[in-house]
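Hello K.,

You asked for the raw outputs rather than the summary table, so here they are, unedited. I folded two proteins back to back in the same session to keep the settings identical. This is the first:
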Amino acid sequence: MSTDGVHGLGFLGVRIEDRERFRAAVALHRDTLGLAVVRDEPDRLVWFRLRDGTELHVYGPEDVDHVAFGDRPCVGLVVDDVEGTRHRMEAEGVEFLWDTQRDGDRVWAHYRGPDGTVYELIGPTVG
């Protein structure tokens, strides 16, 4: 399978169950690194945007939607065609966790890598 369609990283997410560690991670990214906050729901999630547009999502103990991440970061790979890439990967036996999701002009799909880590394909709406 070719990886020609992977352009870079478009997303990094991490879920932190411990409330104090979550708050410390948020403070590090917001206060020490000065990342721009684009969404903040106390003890549930804080989304940051880097200058190149990449998003960093930190999910806390009140978040129940990203429990599948476990204690590992979820990396989003930017591709031209999420559905096409997903179909090729599924044909190779890769397990996708949920249906492909859409929000305006973005599409994404989460899969579990051979190491057990959850990854994400992310890209533009095609067609």
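The second followed immediately with the same parameters:
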Amino acid sequence: MTKKSRRQFLQNAGIATLAAVSPLAAESERVKELFIHHVLFYLKDPNNAQDEAKLLEGLHKLAKVPNIAYVHIGKPAETSRPVIVRDYTFSWMCFFKNIIEEEIYQTHPIHLDFIKDYSGLWEKVVVYDSVGPKKV
């Protein structure tokens, strides 16, 4: 190995090491990792059909946030295994290309209007955010 090629090798190795531990490497992971945002809504009055219809209307408006890759609005399924939670009114699950898109969604005017206009209907929400596990 000549001095020039060895020097070039060491420079390339140093650049590769810096890239692997830099915040930019972590940022590139944030850009390519699927992000799932799952919310369970519990109405204050779960037997009120008008409140349920109004919240459903709001969820359909919320689904128009442009950076949502896929959205599913659901009701509890008619299943009865002991591990299944069925006490919520609506399930809102949306998929984003990455966490950055989800962060944009959180501050999008449609999302902020949804909270302002419909939060009076629910007594609580439970949120499950998930990403894929890191490869070992």
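Strands lie at 35-43, 70-74, 90-96, 122-131.

Happy to rerun anything if the numbers look odd on your end.

Regards,
P.
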